[in-house]
Design the sequence.
């Protein structure tokens, strides 16, 4: 495996990790607010905060890790993305900052504050929308190189069906992943009223996920026909993803094996995300940056990969410890600790 | 609306974010050390006062660390958003420590999460204390990695530039550039110092408000002793930094010290002003002082600004930043020493209001000194973003929207500051240490009344 392929695979794994853990977090924000306005907050908000309080920083680091790694392995991306994403990137920072810090601020206060709950819910949907811009523009057609450097064409971005379908997909996926996770977590906590509620959310958001995926595919065929063709060549991989989707929804509908159901959700996205990523290559940013053209020097790539492997030996045991304490410690989950 | 060019606005926004982040990053590196020390003393001495100190500091720390995390994310992204050309070049050479910083931070975040929520989950308290070690290591390593990146900007090495192409890249050489050792020492020691000073300020204010409880007295003793130790470390690190500058980055030292002519036995200019002919007035001159500061030899030759091309000279007003930073450093050392003397001499009262006022000033002053130091360090590199290779204006974005982003981030930091203060108030206002002590350790609270 070449260094650049190894590098992008590692980064993609981390982006996938962020996709899952951040979706749980972002979606939970929306559900917490939704539960509040539908007067169901007493049922689920305690559950949500028990899970999320210890992990928001870890979620944030997945994201930092991805973009720092991207710049490290593919420094040209810093130029093109940096130059073109000033506004969406800054908006994403502001939303992440407000969400992350107010998480901590409210931790010792009440969850009663209406403005806070609104911000918590709204940022949960706006952040994925802002971040998805990066994936949108990577398909090409949204930036132009002028004498004055690379510029993003905002008019094009806001009127393009592809960019909106990506936003739609991002938001729907967030809600789907999050409600699927909360269903598992509520069951784990033995909290029947909460389980009934979040299970309903999970079933509700399942079919829009598939609709949004199909819409995005159709829009992609207009935006970047080459990429679309490469994706079609991998049709069977996307088929596996759909099979996992059906398995997950079936289990939730049957009301059993919630743990397996969530694993199926994770696999559904894992498979689709990697098929999408693989078909995106050889371009990182169409048509400006390719995998082999944009990669850093071999010396740096070796150094980064070495650090990455050493880092994993440190991080995986620590993450396992964190998860055992907060995710799989039945007493903690049930609120006894 | 914005008459300034993108490069100037980018500098302003970066200065804003870094200046703001520096406050929380400094606390983020220093406070875990103080928490760990307090918890350890509490366990060893079986003294719940110290354990409670650690608990309450931790609670405040959750707030400041959150702001540190989100502003750190902000500067991480802004490096690319505001300085895309620079990151395209620098990313090829200095990505290694940037990447490692994420790991250190990841490590710290995981253990901080565990530490915060597991105070009462272990049978043996020492196990909980052990969790503080990875937090301390992670945060200090973060400081080390990120400071080595800053060192690289000042003394870049480990690559060759042929036209626009970067070749012969050596990631480790870039990371361990000549500026790294002294800079890291200086940043870490001042972070520890500033965190201890901020906590000392809190204890002193409580004592000034006549809350003369054992809890606050112990807090004062622990923090001021720490201040003294870290102030000595800072003085040593500062001295080494000056010697480093004299060797590797003489224009920064020369501009900071108003040293215009290269000469042997150079005087150290302390304070003073510049008149319109760029002559120093109203200054205290310490004969041969600069030679000694720069080389440890009163007669050594010190490079002056005459050796530096005019368009590569840093602005001269950084002299004020340097003097303010150093003055505060000595003041901090002096006040903490005074406290130690008053404490050891039985007849003297170490809780004299004047002394307490002096201690109370140390937190804000140390934080200001950190900011002055960073302004000195960054302005002293002008006009370079990557010394000798790329100027600041070459590295900046050409996007026309930086001004609006500046306004956006001023708004963000205002909101964060307000939220941070409200949250800290909410945590501590209705829950003074005495109440918590009674609540958690009734037997200790009772014996204290007996005293």
Sequence:
């Amino acid at each position: 495996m070449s260094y650049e392929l190894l590098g992008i695979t590692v980064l993609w794994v981390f982006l996938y990790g962020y996709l899952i853990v951040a979706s749980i977090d972002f979606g939970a924000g929306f559900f917490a607010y939704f539960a509040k306005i539908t007067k169901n907050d007493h049922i689920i908000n305690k559950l949500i905060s028990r899970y999320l309080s210890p992990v928001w920083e870890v979620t944030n680091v997945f994201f930092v890790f991805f973009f720092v790694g991207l710049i490290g392995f593919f420094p040209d991306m810093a130029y093109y993305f940096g130059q073109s994403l000033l506004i969406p990137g800054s908006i994403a920072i502001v939303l992440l900052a407000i969400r992350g810090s107010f998480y901590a601020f409210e931790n010792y206060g009440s969850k009663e504050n209406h403005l806070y709950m609104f911000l918590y819910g709204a940022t949960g949907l706006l952040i994925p929308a802002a971040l998805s811009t990066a994936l949108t523009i990577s398909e090409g057609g949204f930036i132009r190189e002028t004498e004055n450097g690379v510029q993003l064409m905002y008019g094009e971005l806001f009127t393009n069906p592809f960019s909106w379908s990506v936003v739609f997909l991002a938001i729907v996926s967030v809600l789907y992943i999050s409600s699927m996770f909360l269903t598992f977590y509520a069951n784990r906590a033995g909290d029947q009223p909460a389980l009934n509620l979040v299970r309903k959310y999970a079933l509700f958001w399942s079919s829009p996920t598939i609709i949004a995926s199909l819409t995005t595919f159709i829009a992609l065929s207009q935006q970047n026909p080459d990429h679309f063709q490469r994706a079609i060549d991998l049709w069977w991989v996307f088929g596996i993803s759909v099979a996992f989707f059906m398995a997950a929804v079936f289990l939730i509908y049957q009301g059993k094996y919630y743990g397996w159901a969530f694993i199926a959700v994770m696999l559904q996205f894992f498979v689709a995300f990697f098929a999408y990523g693989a078909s995106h290559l050889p371009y990182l940013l169409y048509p400006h940056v390719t995998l082999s053209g944009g990669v850093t020097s071999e010396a740096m790539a070796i150094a980064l990969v070495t650090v990455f492997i050493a880092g994993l030996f440190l991080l995986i045991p620590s993450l396992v410890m964190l998860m055992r304490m907060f995710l799989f410690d039945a007493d903690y989950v049930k609120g006894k600790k | 609306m914005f008459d300034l060019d993108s490069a100037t606005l980018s500098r302003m926004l970066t200065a804003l974010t870094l200046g703001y982040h520096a406050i929380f990053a400094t606390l983020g590196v220093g406070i875990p050390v103080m928490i760990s020390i307090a918890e350890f003393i509490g366990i060893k001495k079986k003294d719940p006062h110290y354990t409670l100190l650690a608990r309450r500091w931790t609670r405040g720390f959750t707030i400041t660390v959150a702001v540190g995390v989100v502003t750190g994310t902000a500067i991480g992204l802004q490096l690319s958003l505001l300085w895309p050309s620079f990151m395209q070049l620098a990313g090829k050479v200095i990505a290694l420590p940037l990447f490692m910083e994420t790991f250190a931070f990841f490590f710290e975040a995981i253990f901080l999460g565990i530490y915060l929520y597991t105070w009462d989950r272990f049978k043996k308290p020492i196990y909980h204390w052990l969790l503080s070690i990875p937090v301390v290591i992670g945060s200090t390593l973060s400081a080390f990695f990120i400071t080595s990146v800053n060192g690289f900007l000042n003394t870049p090495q480990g690559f060759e530039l042929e036209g626009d192409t970067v070749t012969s890249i050596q990631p480790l050489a870039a990371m361990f550039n000549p500026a790294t050792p002294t800079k890291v020492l200086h940043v870490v020691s001042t972070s520890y110092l500033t965190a201890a000073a901020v906590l000392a300020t809190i204890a002193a204010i409580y004592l000034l408000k006549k809350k003369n409880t054992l809890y606050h007295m112990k807090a004062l003793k622990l923090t001021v002793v720490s201040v003294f130790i870290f102030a000595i470390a800072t003085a040593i690190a500062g001295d080494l930094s000056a010697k480093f500058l004299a060797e590797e980055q003489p224009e920064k030292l020369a501009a900071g010290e108003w040293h215009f002519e290269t000469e042997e036995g150079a005087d150290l200019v302390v304070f003073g002003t510049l008149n319109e002919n760029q002559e120093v007035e109203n200054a205290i001159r310490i004969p041969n002082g600069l030679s000694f500061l720069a080389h440890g030899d009163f007669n050594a030759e010190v490079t002056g600004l005459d050796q530096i091309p005019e368009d590569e000279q840093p602005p001269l007003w950084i002299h004020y930043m340097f003097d303010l930073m150093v003055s505060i450093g000595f003041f901090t050392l002096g006040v903490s020493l005074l406290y130690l003397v008053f404490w050891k001499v039985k007849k003297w009262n170490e809780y004299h209001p004047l002394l307490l006022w002096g201690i109370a000033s140390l937190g804000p002053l140390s934080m200001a000194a950190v900011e002055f130091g960073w302004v000195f360090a960054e302005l002293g590199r002008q006009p370079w973003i990557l010394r000798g290779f790329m100027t600041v204006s070459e590295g900046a974005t050409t996007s026309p929207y930086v001004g609006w982003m500046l306004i956006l981030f001023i708004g963000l930091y205002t909101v964060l500051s307000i939220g941070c203060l409200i949250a800290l108030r909410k945590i501590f206002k209705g829950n003074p240490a005495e109440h918590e002590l009674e609540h958690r350790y009734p037997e200790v609270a009772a014996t204290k009344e007996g005293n």
